[in-house]
Specification:
With 413 residues, chain A is an alpha/beta fold. Chain A contains 15 helices and 13 strands. By secondary structure, chain B is α+β, with helices and mostly antiparallel strands. In chain B, helix 1 packs antiparallel against helix 5.
Amino acid sequence: MTVSLNDYAPIVGEDVIDHLRQLAARLDGLKVVHINATRVGGGVAEILSTLLPLQRDLGLQAEWEVISGEGEFYECTKRFHNALQGNRIAIPDNLLAAYEETTAANAERLRATLEDADVVIIHDPQPAMLIQYCPNRRGKWAWRCHIDASHPFRPVWKYLRKSVTQYDASIFSLPDFTQPLPHPSYLIAPGIDPLSEKNMELDEEEIQSVYNRFNLDPERPIITQVSRFDRFKDPIGVIAAYQLAKRFVPTLQLVLAGGGASDDPEGEVVLNEVRNAAPNDPDIHILLLPPDAHRTINALQRVSDVIIQKSLKEGFGLTVTEGMWKGKPVIGGDTGGIRLQVINHHTGFLVNSPEGAALRMRYLLYNREQRLEMGRKAREFARENFLLTRLLREHLTLMVAMVYSAANRIDLG
Amino acid sequence: MSEKQQPAAFEIKDCALIGISTGRRAQSLREMRDILQDVHEDSIYYHFWGHLLRPRFDNPEYMNDFATWAHNCLHDRKLSEQLGVIDPADFDNLEELRQELVNVIEERLDESDTVRWASVDEQFHFIRSQIVVFDTRVSVGDPAELASLIPTMSLGSIFYHFIDARTREPRGTDDFVAWLAAVGDEYESLCFSLNAVDPYFATLSELRQTLAAVFSSCLRREAS
């Protein structure tokens, strides 16, 4: 399905679309290149797959390139990821050597495109070092950090910082994630696409089909966490919370739905840990879904009574907004970008332990009216703050600011 | 009758703020004082007015980020009250406002033997903002027409014309008053009533309602 910018007007309003066009008029024909580590799987790939068509619709020559690598490269970048999120994890020299060799090889392949671009946006640490291999770049470069880097393991940040300081700007989801850098650090939260397969309206038949497909009972409450199988998402903690809540709500069903990302070598290990944590309970449904199972996830979120995202660290947590957009209250880990979205007692609850999550599960399942009201508020909150159009506006603002070296005021009037 | 020339039409704008981290953060009251002395004045602006364009569900206890931090993170109720009462509309410019903040904090530091600290996760992050101003392509030629549009103006338009305007020339005046004053002396009482609207304690949607009511009642009085 081809979506155009005008299709968003009924959801966000004509004025929002007009604002995007006014900003884009300053950027007509601009060559923009986004680089990340994976084409499918994970939030970044999802954002780029929806953002790029709209940037093109607005007249930008937007491209998306993906770096490639082998096992040691991904082993190293996964360690970067974990270290930026605070794990005290050393990176051996052989992995760093593999990272640098792979970056150099990717730079060979991409150099002409990157050096010719007007704006380059590099997502996350995996491709961050590319800038060092593009000495003749003519455009402006921004590093987009999607990770909760509030307390990075310092030796790893020191290594990455050498690359990051060479950029013209950086982008973080929250002020807490920023680090002192010699360029402007923009604060831009991610957003979801309300018209993508993951978030679009589905007909009732398709929604109901997941009950049979996954052996779920439509008459009993369902709580769902959608996430990669990653320790930072705390799937084991979700199971513990479910088990505590089930003592009081014996009919409760839990869905843990996730897939892998091609740059995540730990996924299978964690999946096995999760399976071992829930050996004999038919009401725990661990679903390993392919990366294109967007409609399935959409339907699973819609049949759920409550969405949970009990992360221990979270850059943003697109699945939180996804749940909110479907009118569901969210129980979220009290961390990172989840704090932007889950407003206690309004759009859901922030929790710090399996016990806290269990308590809120019981509360929401017990108080039907509260649950529905929170769900309504959550949907409107998502509409006003976390849709793709707001993300697009802020990306365009960043580009105008970088290209025109704008000061504190950009007047399009 | 006014002898003034017919002024240009009032062009309705809209706006959005985008936050930029200054990279500076305070964990103690002393650090807060030190950074306030030389942080970019756009950051003072952002922490006093930026909350109006941020989503919220409750009426906040304090109307600026400094007072909220003092209350929630330093747990210093006296200081939060002293910071909370500072009304940015009372000051001719952001430098004067900065000085008032520094004075209040220094007095509090002088009163206390110990310096209060926030936890590491509750540091105050100094943010500045860039404002993007959009053209709505709507302009009006007379005050009655402007009055009819205010109830449907976007919150960004209200922010731009009634809040942000005070930092532009002529300083300390909102765009509505500046334009009405140029239209003619007959709108003096409307200008007076608009000047009496305190923008500091309302949400933008409450402010929009208040402005619409002021326009409506003053113009009705003029007409009768």
